[in-house]
Amino acid sequence: MVAQRDEIPRDQPVIIYCNTGSLSAQAGFALRLLGWDNVRILQDGLVGWKAKGGFEANQRAIEAAEEAGAS
């Protein structure tokens, strides 16, 4: 990741992920040390994201927020 840092944009959000989150956390930390402030890490990686419901959980959260805003 650090070796390819010139390909990583600085003017838009960057999400880093790996299978469990540990490698992406290290990569994100390194990029932040190098000056990237637009880097976000998918905590717990893809495994954790799937265990929490993945896209379905995201959709439920969006719907709940919309309902709360309509009240």
Q: Portion of residues in helices?
A: 40-55%
Total number of distinct structural domains: 1
Helix/strand/pairing category: mainly alpha
CATH class: Alpha Beta
Largest sheet: number of strands, sense, barrel closure: 2 strands, parallel
Mean pLDDT: 91
> Span between N and C termini?
44 Å
Stated plainly, the CATH topology is called Oxidized Rhodanese, domain 1
H/I helix tally:
3
Proportion of β residues? 5-15%
Description:
Pfam families: Rhodanese. Residues 8-58 form the Rhodanese domain. The protein has one domain (2-70): Oxidized Rhodanese, domain 1, CATH 3.40.250. The protein is built from 3 helices and 2 strands, in the order βαβαα. It has helices at residues 22-33, 45-51, 54-70, and strands at 14-16, 39-41. A two-stranded parallel sheet has the order 1-2. Strand 1, helix 1 (22-33) and strand 2 form a beta-alpha-beta unit. The longest helix is centred in the last third of the chain and has 17 residues, at 54-70. The termini are far apart. The mean pLDDT is 91.
Please outline the helices and strands.
Elements: E1 14-16, H1 22-33, E2 39-41, H2 45-51, H3 54-70
Parallel strand pairs: 1-2
